[in-house]
């Protein structure tokens, strides 16, 4: 069975969260939480909260084996963009785009879903 959690209109751009979604996709749910826990990044904290919510949904729906759940889907989509105007010199204006994201996480049993192979732990480039 699949257990889903969604955070809509997250206050961070999708590119900043997507790198962490790629990191946890295909991993055990507990291992994914441990990975995200030690990244001091806003995108990692948002994704960690969604994974915890998906585990809570599985517990609420009485999943028989919470320890065996695998992150079968970790998807970050773009959301509506707030557009603002920044006045600049000589009467010109620059546009400010405040991006948002929708975060989707699906947990499933390891033998049920076709789960992609997890990315290597050092695959996240910092800097």
Helix-strand blueprint:
Elements (H helix, E strand, L loop, with lengths): L1 E9 L3 H11 L4 H9 L4 H19 L9 E9 L3 E6 L5 E6 L2 E8 L19
Antiparallel strand pairs: 1-5, 2-5, 3-4
Overview of this structure, please?
The chain is of the alpha+beta class. It has a single domain (2-112), classed as Alpha-Beta Complex (Ribosomal Protein L22, Chain A). It is 31% helix and 30% strand. It contains three helices and five strands, in the order E-H-H-H-E-E-E-E. It has helices at 14-24, 29-37, 42-60; strands spanning 2-10, 70-78, 82-87, 93-98, 101-108. A three-stranded antiparallel sheet has the order 1-5-2. Strand 3 (82-87) and strand 4 (93-98) form a beta hairpin. It is elongated and about 65 Å long. The termini are far apart. The model has no long low-confidence stretch (mean pLDDT 90).
Shape: elongated
Unreliable residue stretches: none
Spatial gap, N to C terminus? 38 Å
Structural category:
alpha+beta
Largest sheet: 3 strands, antiparallel
Assign the CATH superfamily. Ribosomal protein L22/L17
Cα gyration radius (Å)? 17 Å
Measured by DSSP, the beta-strand proportion falls in 25-35%
Q: Work out the helicity level.
A: 25-40%
Order of helices and strands: EHHHEEEE
Count of DSSP helices? 3
CATH class: Alpha Beta
Find the count of extended strands (DSSP E, 2+ residues): 5
Average pLDDT, to the nearest integer?
90
Number of domains: 1
CATH architecture: Alpha-Beta Complex
Strand order within the widest beta sheet: 1-5-2
Give the CATH topology: Ribosomal Protein L22, Chain A
